[in-house]
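debug: dumping io for the single-chain case to check the tokenizer round-trip. Nothing else runs in this session.
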Amino acid sequence: MRRKLAINRLRERGDLSGELVTQFVDKYRSPIIEGQNATFLFRGDADEVFVRHRVVGLPDPLPMKQLAGTDLWAATCDLPAGSRVEYQLETRRGEHYERFNDPLNPRVAHSPMGSSSVCAGEGYHVPSWALPDPEARPGELTDHRIRSKALRRDQGMLIYTPARFNRVLRYPLLVVHDGPEYVQFAAMKTVLDNLIHRLDIAPMIVAFVPPGDRLREYPNYAPHARFMARELLPDLESRYPLMESPVSRCLMGSSFGGVASVSTAYRYPGVFGSLLIQSASLVFTDIGQDHGGGPYFDPVVKFVNRYRAKPTRFTDRMYMSCGIYEPLITPNRSMVSVFREAGITVKYEENRDGHNWDNWRDRLQSALTWLYPGPQKYVYE
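debug: decoded output
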């Protein structure tokens, strides 16, 4: 017989004292994970309380209900095994609304926009290869700056060289859009150190490149593509012992950075033979021009619509991933077949997560081991 949820067992207790509620909250904290159910809790005085999230398929805001005679609020939703959800709570007191992280949940994820609470379903855990490993020899991050005529500015970046870097050898090159954010919020240096140490991936040179105005430069912007292909690549080739084949050169990015990776490789076909794109904002329209994404998506939609009308093979292989809880899941699913029909080898993966940095971190092992498996040093020549 299926066991009742903890919050329902509490409701059935009848007259709930403050002490009983305190004991319940101290025992379970928030959220309570029971099979494929997640129960969010909040304790305090308010006119209304909501769970705020960006999970496609769940009401947003998700209203919480107050247990009669108490200051405890609760809301229960489905949460399939392996799921990971970021959320905040919102209270209304009169006309005043306030949003904040769950005070009963110590688990927090960070991003350039701030932090959010994390709800992890049964079976989800942070991958071991994303955590610091004292046995893994660390690679080195160094600052690098070049003058870009295309972008009309000095462009800084971080360059990763692997442990035991040897100029006698040649290395694949990975260029990462929103690079410093991948280092800070997706633990990507730690991931590289660990995967190289474990011989899961080949040692590689990685350029972590930040944008200027990303909403202008990332959606199919010719000067950005020219910088990547005609300025950054030759500069790195002159400084580091890189493999010469296009398939050994990979562009990477998430969200708008995924669009920048695709559009750059499209503008310079055959230069970057590999792509790694995560939750790419490849929004398009089949009928009309109303895409619902706002003006920043106009150049994206124009580019993707044009490509869908006439697909071409501009790269050899592409790793794509997307969370099924994010609105971009539909366009990403649709583009897989378009790329494959153009002759591009695509590995596509979905997971129960949303549009966030931990999701993109959790896919790095699968992506990098497929693109550059170790220890076959010269397989990409």
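debug: round-trip ok. The mean pLDDT is 95.
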